[in-house]
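[agent] plan:
  1. take the single chain provided in the ticket
  2. run structure prediction with default settings
  3. attach structure tokens to the ticket
  4. add a short note for the reviewer (M.T.)
[agent] executing step 1
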Amino acid sequence: MDKKMIFKELTELHDEYCKDCFIKKQFRKEFGKTYAHSFCINKCTVGEKLKQYGDVLTNH
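[agent] step 2 finished; step 3 output follows
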């Protein structure tokens, strides 16, 4: 998969699932920005997928 396709996929995933995510908004409100961000990266399935794409770009 080339970089252009990965960026397209990242954008689509973010716009579809993360942009208006209720859980992220709620965690940010209750626990703060850092906790919400950490949750998204480590526990959310979409966040894990985004992280995988990021790893591919880093090692590309």
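[agent] step 4 note for reviewer: The CA atoms of residues 26 and 32 lie 9 Å apart.
[agent] ticket updated
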